[in-house]
Amino acid sequence: MAKKVEYSVEEKLRAMYDLQLIDSRIDKIKSVRGELPLEVEDLEDEVEGLDFRMNKINEELTEIENVIKEKLNKIEEARGMISKYNDQQKNVRNNRAFESLSKEIEYQELEIQYSEKQINASKSEIEEKKEKLNETSNLRDERKTHLDHKKEELNSIMKETEKEESALIKKSEEFEKKIDDALLVSYKKIRSSVKNGLAIVPVERGASAGSFFVIPPQVQLDIASRKKFITDEYSGRILVDKDLANDEEKKMEKIFSSI
After folding, report:
1. Are 203 and 196 in contact (CB under 8 A)?
2. Is 0.70 surpassed by the pTM of this model?
3. pLDDT digits (tens, 9 = 90+) for 164-189
4. Cα diameter, the chain
5. pLDDT at 2 > cutoff 60
6. Kind plus residue range of the DSSP H or E element containing 240
7. Nearest-angstrom CA–CA distance, 70 and 141
8. Cα–Cα–Cα angle for 16, 17, 23, nearest 5°?
9. 41: helix, coil or strand?
10. From CA 221, how far away is CA 225, in angstroms rounded?
11. How far apart are CA 195 and CA 25, in angstroms?
12. Domains in the chain: boundaries
């Protein structure tokens, strides 16, 4: 069984700072993409929604056209009945039968008027829906063009950064193995709780990077000794001395340039 490698505090600090440099570089790549992935996703949802709306309007138009066909058939039937009743009136022998047929004719004429009224209303509804369909189609084309542009932009950025990002993620996983699980959990927890994702920072001009709170001289000496882990009492970040940070930045820059 292979003996587990034990790292000194300084080696762990260096490994953590290296990991921070890698993760910060990955963050930078992601920031270049910015909100583009979300924009693309939102636009895809919008285009899909507009497609659904257009399909719905087309279904409604088909239903209305079927109603018109049904009413036209009713009109034809009514005209046929009127013609039939007119012929029958010519052969009736009493006024009661004639009046009865007249009422039937009147009823069929009312049916025709009612159907024509419904057809006209349906035609107006078709015009409104076609106008709405045209507006939706134009908006859909506009959003689709915008989506295609954003996809192109995202694909271009992805193409430029995909190789580097993939290599950096592998490096990040490689450096994570050099760090104790407990430390790694702390590192990730701090990273997720701070806006810029910096969990471990150097001391610059007597304060932790990005902070205006001065670190006491004795604490600065402890940080420089690299014998224990020291965190900034204000931000919770792990602190390293500037010399260690410079060493690791130069080392990692060589690694980054070879990716």
Report:
1. no
2. no
3. 889 999 989 988 888 889 999 999 99
4. 128
5. no
6. strand 238-240
7. 35
8. 85
9. helix
10. 6
11. 15
12. 9-32+180-258, 36-167
